[in-house]
Amino acid sequence: MKNYITKTFSSKKSNFLSHWIKLLPLIFILFILAAPSFAQKGLSRVEAEKLAKKEWTIEKNKLRPAAEKVWSEGVIRFGKYTMPFAYRAFGDKPADGRSLYISLHGGGNAPPAVNDQQWENQRTLYPIKEGFCIVPRAPTNTWNLWHEDHIDNLLDSLIRYAVILEDVNPNKVYILGYSAGGDGVFQLAPRMADRWAAASMMAGHPGDANALNLRNLPFAIYIGGRDTAYSRNTLAIAFNQKLDSLQRLDPQGFIHDFHLYADKAHWMDHRDTIAISRMASFTRNPLPKKVSWVQDNRLQHRFYWLSAPVETLSEGAAAELSIKGNQITVTKSTVKVLNINLNDKMMDLDRKITVIENGRILFRGKVKRNLNTIKRTIHEYQDPQMIFSVKLILMGDKVTVKNS
């Protein structure tokens, strides 16, 4: 009897499995058809955060071989340009990651040997207590050696690789430079403001630098009162006055510091070394509540939580937006296609979002966190502190949600 029961049960089990095996193709089809409905529900905050970490880890692993090659060679390349660099770590690594100082040498339109000597000299100028210091050698020997178009790409890569290989905290990245390096800081600090925690300009010339982009970047100027070549002293004073004026209009922004050494010419006898401790007191806020973005003649595709397709941009295109609670206010936008990138650190994405311009509501509704947006912004920014799960697109007076 026992054997019979076992045999009968075994037969029923076999028939049961056979029945479900036949149904598997149908179940698979139903799952595929249902998949869009799962996607339509959107991600929860916890799911979005987990996926952001996972996708950033995948991106880091993709970038690591290139980073290791650059670090081992001490040379980084972009297109036809080659940039050697010297680097050194100082002090013990903090729990939240190392600081990174990028220090730009002087020289400029001079024989290569002069710029080589300036590169060597730059390594000795600034005492750093904690951090990873990179002193690059400019790829060219032109007057604008630190603010030609390719420099942004090269510095972006250096930051990215330092984060991956040296455990640099992307919110503690600083830029400084002397003479022609100061010229570079005047240009690179505004146009790459969202990469830096603070910037210090020593003995440089502002050229056509736009101060508006410095709204969220602590900026310091160190200049000799007798540094009259190219009117460096008077132009530095004028730039500081511009920052004074902007801060009076916007007291929450435009933190700046100005040091005029009246008895000094182009060489300040190391008085400017106080810049290091000042910069170290700041950390970057990657998601400020207000962003002012003006395009330089070197176009940028991203700036804090705003981005735009480069092919739609032009010099002078500008945007100013702010966030309060779940409301986004567009004060100004002459950018043809402006992406407003959002995550849960910025607002409550489980509640309705409102976009308003000149008192008119352009958008009001709930949005869905999206894996494709997480992946896209990781690729766009390559910064673990700037990963977004929602992308709104502002074109003229219309706002749409990017869901794919």
TrEMBL record:
Q: Which UniProt keywords apply?
A: Hydrolase, Signal
SUPFAM superfamilies recorded: alpha/beta-Hydrolases (SSF53474)
Protein name per UniProt: Alpha/beta hydrolase
InterPro entries, per database record = AB_hydrolase_fold, Plant_Biomass_Hydrol_Est
What Gene3D superfamilies does its record include? alpha/beta hydrolase (3.40.50.1820)
Superkingdom field: Bacteria
